[in-house]
Design goal:
Layout (H helix, E strand, L loop, with lengths): L3 E4 L6 E9 L3 H8 E3 L3 H6 L7 E8 L2 E11 L10 E8 L1 H13 L3 E2 L4 H8 L5 H12 L3 H12 L1 H25 L9 H20 L2 H9 L1 E6 L6 H9 L17 E7 L2 E7 L9 H16 L2 E7 L15 E6 L15 E2 L8 H16 L12 H22 L4 H19 L5 H8 L7
Helix pairs in contact: 5-6, 7-8, 7-14, 8-13, 13-14
Length: 448
């Protein structure tokens, strides 16, 4: 493969920028533009030692572009499994681009998004779940999300999937052996034993699939929709929880007409706040569109904060309680209307910010109810791609179970088991395709 190069540090100004090269010609390309500052003669005539930082300058036709530190990692003991060179230069936008341009002119190819991690996967340094965990670590917004990504990078999910894959393969081998050698003496309880093993694998798969909800919340946050009538204080609450003015606040009903989303942390838990239009009758056509969007968001929420103005009368019908619902009374700094006196709700004031600690506690309690009985500190949590693969695998295993129980020919069972194996293998990349890899690594940042 071609030698690739990219700036691996974030865009913008900083103390240091990092430029990476990976490939067969990484070292020779770097040497074309790197001039050592100390012991130049000895270094020029000898190979660069791996994992040793060399101080020198990047030069363009004799002109110094920047003073840098250059480190070489020799294959296969590198992140990508290829020869890798990392150049640490000063962190200006212009200087890092100039260094990259020189490397590209010297023979390197600009790396697309995720190409370094893709090569690590292709060279057997990571399985597909670990490659995805790299991006999860970079994008983690909470301690729990970071821990979950670190567990996946350790290979916990990959190890589980390989064990599951091997168990299915062993089961398929038994079915294939029965098909190929029907004349062999087979114990009458063999079918029952195999059916029992199949059901055990299905139960394990269902347990892992149950973590998809947990994984989505850890990665994206508890989707929390602020819902209620106009002027209840939804946009004010959004601003208070964020700590800055994100939404326009006005006493004019119908000010909020579109959906606003912002991520926050609530006591260490990721929460995605969604501000919506006030729901009321008699709105004009434009406001009605905002109300329609608000209702859709409410239907898709993990948690709905039903906000009402405590200083005015309560509606005839209050929202039903439950795991995904929380009643919040705003404007507690004003006298409370008598109709709310016996209503169990979290009382807050967006003006005085009173009751915010109680609201945060209530949100966390609801979040933990949403997650259910799970050890979020230690469990593996799958993502949407894993969920799709494993759901298809479970579907094929269920079809195999039906074939078993209906005493269909073993060829039917074997076919379903093969399909289940293929779907499960996609999780770690055992049955990868270029389209699949393209979708995954296109979500990565440049230089990773």
């Amino acid at each position: 493969m071609q030698t690739i190069a990219a700036i691996a540090s974030p865009p913008g100004q900083g103390a240091i920028a990092l430029i990476r090269l990976s490939g067969l010609n990484a070292v020779s390309i770097a040497r074309n533009v790197f001039v050592p500052k100390r012991g130049a003669g000895a270094i020029a005539s000898q190979p660069l030692e791996p994992r040793k930082a060399y101080f020198g300058a990047i030069c363009d036709q004799g002109e110094i572009v920047d003073e840098v530190l250059l480190t070489v990692f020799r294959a296969p003991a590198s992140f990508t499994g290829e020869d890798v060179v990392e150049i640490g230069c000063h962190g200006g936008i212009l200087v890092s681009r100039r260094v990259l341009e020189l490397l590209l002119r010297s023979g390197a190819t600009s790396a697309p998004a995720g190409e370094f991690t893709r090569r690590a996967y292709l060279n057997g340094k990571l399985d597909l779940t670990q490659a995805e965990a790299v991006m999860d670590i970079i994008g983690a917004q909470s301690d729990l999300a970071l821990k979950a990504a670190a567990r996946q990078l350790e290979g916990r999910l990959g190890d589980w999937m390989r064990a599951f894959h091997d168990d299915l393969l062993d089961l398929l081998a038994h079915v294939e052996a029965y098909i190929d050698f029907p004349e062999e003496d087979i114990s009458p309880d063999t079918g029952a034993v195999m059916l029992g093993r199949l059901r055990e694998e299905m139960a394990e798969l269902e347990r892992l699939l149950a973590t998809a909800h947990h994984g989505r919340i850890l990665r994206s946050g508890l989707r929390t929709v602020l819902s209620g009538p106009p002027n209840a204080g939804k946009s004010s609450l959004l601003n208070v929880l964020l700590g800055f003015d994100r939404a326009i606040v006005s006493p004019v009903p119908g000010t909020t007409r579109d959906v606003l989303e912002e991520a926050i942390m609530v006591k260490g838990w990721p929460v995605l706040l969604v501000d919506t239009a006030g729901i009321r009758d008699g709105a004009d056509a434009l406001e009605q569109e905002g109300i329609s969007r608000a209702k859709k968001q409410r239907d898709q929420a993990d948690l709905v904060l039903h906000l009402f103005d405590a200083s005015t009368g309560s509606p005839a019908t209050l929202p039903e309680g439950g795991t995904g619902s929380l009643l919040v009374l705003n404007k507690a700094d004003l006298p409370e209307h008598a109709s709310w006196n016996s209503v169990d709700a979290v009382r807050i004031s967006c003006v005085s910010q009173g009751g915010m600690a109680a609201l945060e506690e209530a949100i966390v309690s609801k979040l933990q109810l949403c997650l259910g009985p799970t050890d979020v500190e230690n469990d593996v949590s799958i993502n949407a791609r894993h969920q799709d693969c494993l759901t298809r695998s479970l579907h094929f295993l269920q079809a195999a179970e039906i074939a078993f129980t209906k005493n269909l020919p073993p060829e039917f069972v074997a076919e379903e088991l093969r399909a289940a194996l293929a779907a499960a293998g996609e999780v770690v990349g055992r049955s990868d395709t270029e389209d699949l890899l393209g979708r995954i690594f296109s979500t990565f940042c440049i230089g990773k």
